[in-house]
Specification:
With 314 residues, the protein is α+β, with helices and mostly antiparallel strands. The strands form 2 sheets. The protein has a 5-stranded mixed β-sheet, covered by helices on one side. A two-stranded antiparallel ribbon has the order 6-7. Helix 2 packs parallel to helix 5, helix 7 packs antiparallel against helix 8 and helix 8 runs antiparallel to helix 9. It is elongated and about 75 Å long. It is an enzyme of class 1 (oxidoreductase).
């Protein structure tokens, strides 16, 4: 099957005809088997001079500009001999596993520094209260868990992310759940001996919120393992997830994540913790609803009673 590869036409560019004589110029022609996948097509395009490497390519086709996913066969998109596929260079890429390492390392560094180098951030030293000690252990544990999941649990459906996006994504973690959260939770206002520390440091409350947090973290880990087991190593297979948590929502990993951070916000009564909870919940809701709709489009037998992220609600 011969396909024309071109950049998306613009009003200022004259229409050209495909040619194999100057493959460094768009448009050009590539030839792939009729049974080829999108990944095969990306490899064929990358062999042409001046074309981006597979991880940098975003391929679309048709009037609706349908994005061609790397794990799909070309016949899924109805492509036939002589059709045109448009390519966009996404720019420098970074592996998703590396992205996750960077995102979760930021909060670990900031919480460690703020907690242990008080004079640098507050201009004084003081004894941490039971509340601060507990919050530090839980938050550090959360992000250490995330790093370990990245190394040993997650199987990524996409190989890379545009390098520029790493800064945007990392800012969310490094600033909101890192520096901002740490600065206010470990501040002298809730240090040992203060009235607020005595009020919030009730052993019963600390135990209750810790229990909720640990329940949510272990449940979150369980759903990540379920998702991992859906996808054989080295593949991008997609299946309907089932099991613990998935009976009510499509993304219980997000649901349990929200519960964990709600426990931190309830335990610390910190505006910074509440801010992170709201921002993170809103972002996860957007991710979940988009992926939930994709599940329903992809699987005709997808459970209709399931909600995206909040049981019985949305």
């Amino acid at each position: 099957m011969r396909l024309t590869v071109d950049k998306r036409p613009s009003a200022s560019r004259a229409t050209g005809s495909p040619t194999k004589a100057a493959p460094s110029q768009f448009p050009f022609v590539v030839e792939v088997p009729a049974t080829a996948t999108v990944a095969d097509l990306k490899l064929a395009i990358a062999k042409q001079a001046g074309a981006p490497q597979p991880d940098r390519q975003r391929l679309t086709a048709g009037e609706k500009k349908a994005v061609l996913e790397a794990g799909d066969a070309l016949d899924k998109y109805g492509l036939k001999d002589g059709d045109t596929v448009f390519v966009k260079d996404l720019g420098p890429q970074l592996g998703w596993q590396t992205v996750f390492y960077i995102e979760y390392a930021g909060p670990l560094v900031f919480h460690y520094l703020v907690y242990n180098f008080q004079n640098l951030f507050y201009g004084q030293t003081f004894e941490h209260s039971a509340l601060q000690q507990r919050a530090y252990l839980l938050i550090m544990g959360h992000f250490i868990k995330r790093e370990l999941e990245t190394a040993f649990v997650h199987r990524f459906s996409h190989g890379t992310m545009p390098l520029f996006n790493v800064f945007k994504n990392s800012g969310h973690y490094h600033l909101l759940s890192g520096l901002n959260l740490a600065y206010w939770i470990y501040s002298p206002a809730t240090a040992q001996g203060t009235a607020l520390a005595a009020q919030l440091g009730c052993p019963l409350l600390l135990s209750a919120f810790t229990g909720i947090f640990l329940f949510a973290e272990l449940s979150n880990l369980s759903t990540h393992i379920t998702l991992r087991n859906l996808r054989p190593p080295g593949s991008r297979v997609r299946r309907i997830p089932r099991g613990y948590g998935f009976g009510l929502v499509s993304f219980p990993n997000y649901t349990f994540e929200i519960i964990a951070w709600a426990a931190v916000a309830g335990m610390t009564r910190s505006v910074a913790a509440l801010l992170f909870l709201v921002v993170a919940s809103a972002q996860m809701y957007l991710w979940a609803t988009k992926k939930h709709a994709q599940y329903k489009r992809e699987f005709p037998d997808y459970p209709r009673a399931r909600k995206a992220i909040f049981p019985f609600i949305a």
